[in-house]
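Possible race condition, two jobs.
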Amino acid sequence: MRFFVIIIFCLLSVSLLAGKPLADWPQFRGPNGNGYIGKLNHPIEWSKKKNLSWSESIPGGGWSSPIVVGDRVFLTTAVDSNNTKPLDHAGGVRNMRGKKASEPFAFKVICISLIDGSVQWRKDIAVETPKFPIHASNTYATESPVTDGKYLYCYFAAIGRVVALDMDGKLNWSVYVGAFPGGNGFGTGSSLAYKSGKLFLQCDNDKDSFVLSLDANTGNESWKRKRSSSTSWSSPFIWTNSERTDLVVCGSGTVTGYDPVSGKTHWRLTNASSAFTASPASNSSHIFLGNSSPRGQGPLIAINSKINGESSLDISNLSEGITWGHLRGGPGMASPVVSGGHLFVCSRGFLSCYNTKTGERSYKSRLPSTKSITASLWANDKYVFLMDESGKAFVIQSGPKFKVVGENQLEDLFWSTPAVSNGALLLRGANKLYCIRK
């Protein structure tokens, strides 16, 4: 009998261990904010009929990325009486001028089971009519939340509200930081960052730009710095290098490294072309960043830990803090990613590969039959993944030679950057959240 009990206990222990999440996905672009997933634990093949574990309809519109804590998935959305959804890129171009809301939206946080896709709870944060218009392809819930594992922090820039909820949806605090007009009525999109009990919020707009640090426990302001930048959509990035930790903020023509504790400016790089949409990529020694505009590709640069003080970007005469740079090569809306010793950058339907140490470009190849790509890239050391708005996802062999090793397809509109956790790939479409898992 004793032997039987021991066997049962061992089996239960193995079962519990097998069900333990491999890793949380606590913020936009994952644990390090750079799209690198480490060991690949999600399938490289999927479709409506293959490796689709579940899908769950999501009301309203939201391009915020899902985040994961344990077996729970969290995401935000904004819902009006018409259940308005964003348009694709072509539809947005046809309706280029931003449209102002004519009625209130319910700004919601939704918790979904990672196991089976069932909704665990919904929380209404506010019911308000946003003051400023957005692009028809954008949403009023594009900023991704962040978590420290205890609380969930959400930012709705359209109504200027930051909130902290516990894992069961109970409100801990709520603060108003201001709502501001965006360039050309495009709307907002900069996600939150978190480090050591502090939240970081980048609000580059066309009226009163600033970067803000809030105490995560109370919502009280830790520090605030005004910025000269106008509207940008890049998210603040925590960069820990051999010299220090920087809060890197990419704005219109400038890149700034702040001290996350005090808000002091460590360094500032000017003449960086136009506004930023994509967020930086990184490895252990560099951050890689760049931008593009409707007029064409802007610069692509590799910044090292020696960067200090204020300098102006000059590709023909790089300063000590910049290892290499290209006058043209910056990403479009999709943030780049590092895989192995290579940097992968997507812009205008082309994928480019660069040596991270030298900046030498290995290739620039057109992706076959692709549409607009807005979702940021994700990768391990073997594969690079990217997905266009039609739901076509490419699996690219990492390394200096262009090779497509797989194509996958789901039917929806995809602009949101995926999340990866516990063997699952979470893809947010305009209509549903999809869980890919074996």
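Job #2 (started ~2 s after job #1):
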Amino acid sequence: MRRLFLMALLPVVSLSLWAQGGSATFDYLLLPHSARSSALGGVNVSVVENDASLIYDNPAFLGGDIDKTLLVNYLSYISDIGIGNVAFTKKLGEKTSFGIGALYANYGNMIETTDDNQTIGNLQANDICGSIFVAHDITDRLRGGITGKFLYSNYYHNTAIGIGVDLGLSYCNDDGTFSWGLVGKNIGRQIKAYEEERAVLPWDIQFGITHKLSHAPIRFSFTAVHLKQWKFDDIYSTEDSFIQTLGKHLLVGVELIPNDNFWIGVGYNIKRAADMHLEDGNKFGGFSAGAGIRIKTFSVGCSLGKYHTAATSFMVSIATTFAAKEI
């Protein structure tokens, strides 16, 4: 299986080369897909936890500890725009796990009018992404994972189709106090465009480390994002210093985890805070917070975050496992 897993990386490398260049589309893939990662700044690729919803951040989080788990996540974005996903995971043998999932984005009802402003009906716009997750334990501490994605977009009379992959690694030490993760995310492009030019997916390279204090129930996560580039375009046409540019690549998350069944987390996304900065208002842009609880085989998590200047977004993650507990 390890040889098969490594062989699977060859087409991924080819796909990543094919995906580079051109404008990006399917930007809904950049929004959080888990209440826990949402609470910790919007992205987390290094927290090793019994939380199946995190496989959307890093496919290497998929393992035997979340065998036969059904999960549902929903993000109330802004206005009547909602984004949800479902997934089911299954252990295959001692070192390999498998999952299937679907992500759906609905952009609400929009009124269709004529040139003279006569209402003639409603317009619909939505995105669908089907996913297949596969992960394999490379060693006792290191696991690799791949997510294959098939994307379909329908905006009124315009449709687009895309394919892509996430490729991840996850490492955790023996006592679980230190872990790191590395992900190449959304590597791919359209195979059918809205018009003529085919766009790439909003691909990124992300790396994170997580450390739990030895004598306190506190865990810190530091995540580096947008590693495929250094400088960012600034809406105010100002030049960022080295420290400002470095900061925009970083997310910080802190968790209080008094036991295995409860967590509280807060996060700060420096780039999001800068992008949404307003002279009068939006002081909490970039901040996020959430909490979760597990009761036997059922778990639920909720989070609040600002991903747009117009509103605060609410996210909920629900999961249950059907696997028999070991005695």
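The domain at 2-321 is CATH 2.40.160.60 (Porin).
Logs attached separately.
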